[in-house]
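Let us practice reading a record.
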Amino acid sequence: MTPLDLWLSRSIPMCLLLHSLVLMAICFPSASMCPKGCACQRADHSLHGLNVTCSLLRLREIPPDLPPDTVLLQLDRNHIQAVPDRAFQGLRMLRRLNLSHNAVETLGEGAFLGLEASLEELDLSHNRIVSVHKDAFARLKARVLVDDNPWHCDCALQQALGGMAHNHEAATRVHCRSSELRDQEGRPFLAVDADLCNLARRTTDYAMLVTMFGWFAMVISYVVYYVRQNQEDARRHLEYLKSLPSKPKKPDEPEDISTVV
């Protein structure tokens, strides 16, 4: 066997082995790339995206080690209570995010920053969200599901949903568990025809007016009390002076004119 034949006999199997390893790395993500307990599979329609399923794992927070090429993320039916700012910032390819059936109560102002260009669907239904920051869904073009939450219909919610003109479906599914207007409680959000932001401003104006009136009344009361106290002190001083014995008249003093007359 020539040296060339010997080299070929050793290099060809090595090349085939490397080729197989590359294909396995592409088609089957390694366990180290997948969060603990989750299942990660390549998307059927793409070799460059992962479907990550972390459902029913009793998670209390969003896993920090999500693969950057995740396109579908299932976090439903856990115990997640909050979505902090920039929770998904590194997932530039994420198209669908399912956070339904959790215990989410708060959404950070920038909870979905970084997903504006890619996200197509966001499911936040069946949670415990009462209110959100007015910019929580800003610039999102995704279909957003927010039904079955105990919403408090206020100015911030009106601004948040008003900023999603392309997502009318989200507003139609919101019902007011409570509201700034008592008669709107239990009714659909779209039935609220009042400007809740102006209502809040008017309430603030009334509160400021009442506070100013209270301070003014306190100042007037103090002035009245001060004047009356001074009058009482002056009266007592005058009575004291009247009670003093008069000075006796000296013999050589001239008589009063009225006495002479």
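A brief commentary: The chain has two domains: 31-194, 195-233.
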